[in-house]
What we know:
heterodimer, A: about 300 residues, alpha+beta, Jelly Rolls, Phage tail protein beta-alpha-beta fold, 3 domains, 7 helices, about 35% strand, elongated, B: about 170 residues, mainly alpha, Arc Repressor Mutant, subunit A, about 65% helix
Amino acid sequence: MKDEKYILKWLNGEISEEELSLLKQDSNFKNLEKIAHYSSQIETPTIDVNKAFKEFELKKATTTKKGKVVSFNYKRFYQYAATIVVLLVSSYFLFFNGATNYNTQFAETKTFNLPDDSEVILNANSTISFNKKKWEDSRYLQLKGEAYFKVKKGKTFTVHTSIGKVTVLGTQFNVKERANYFEVKTFEGLVSVQYKDALVKLAKGKMFKVINGKIDTLNTFNLTNKSWLQKESNFKSVPLQLVLNELQNQYDYTVKTKDINLEQLYTGGFTHSDINVALQAITIPLQLSYKIEGKIITIYKYDK
Amino acid sequence: MIKKSLCNEEDFNEFYKSNIQFITNFSHYKSGDKDTALDLIQEVFLKMWEKCSEISYDKAKSYLFTSVNNLFLNNLKHEKVVLNYAKNSPYIDINNQSPEYLLEEEEFKHKLKKAIEDLTEAEREVFLMNRIDGKKYREIAELLNISQKAVEKRMSSALKKLRSKIDLL
């Protein structure tokens, strides 16, 4: 009976040619073949599937008059109910809380009015969000990036940034908040700037600056020069790194540098309309060179 | 991504229609009784419909066979199983029409039938599911909730009995 394994394989239709020829050498194989053959011819009751099914349907109809009680799945029902509640609640908070967002991409500015007709001009790569519903009670907005505000007289107007807070009553001013850089310029009226514990009153024509945590309040600026609103950025003694960051905000390029001092201070400005003119405005005063390859700008030391 | 469910009428009907013949065969191998078997099977399907939410579709087939199996365990008296050959079934050598050959084959068939009737129920159901319904050991094992090894053991012992009985007679 050492062939038993092969016989079982054979009956299961899994035998290989080789094993089968081995099996066929067995003198009993003829009988085995007959057993396999004739046993499969044993009659089974022939079921008329459709007739049986009809009978079944009839039986089902008479015995389950109470309806398909079991098929009502409470667990599932609660799951659906909970989902709907969650959707309703979250959509209420999402869509009816009056939260409004404005944002700009690289090299894009946007002008819009707040609910009280105060004017906002949003510089590139910036976001403003505020609550429309609560605007009448408190004029409060969150700013990321840079924006120019022309505030209508009224209740306190607060601009909140991650670095500092600016509060006014009605004036024109510019707030700029970029990585490690915070700047407020007053164009009209009086602006109070709160940076950490310090509270600074900023008169017309004054400028408040925080670079890498260092406060600089003694700056003035040219009132007629609203720089980026006229499609250019202006800087006064600002580290080169921050200037280049702003360049990346205004143009959709990546800036790389090679062997140059990013801490050196830059005073000047660049235009928003032509990348070459802008780069020249930055590099020539600092005696640097640049090249543009695709979307990458490399700035390096100027070699004679 | 809709999962099939017994509670879905369409899925259930499909399940019914694709399994009714096979499950009837199964009960026939166990008892050899045709008439009461179908009624019992209808009952089992009805119960499955009522409990549809408790039975996952993947396990439904196994559930069906287990239920029928249990019914036989509990309720049915085991009478002597009587089997028959299907009419007009061909001989192994269809070209050989000599009277001697035909007689020989008929005699063999008769012996085989008796031997199969004399198998234990466990051996007979496995053996015939394999031979008649062409099921693999793995499938049979799944349906009966036993291991494949157990199926192979039953096949072996069934074969052993059949061979020795045929050789004896």
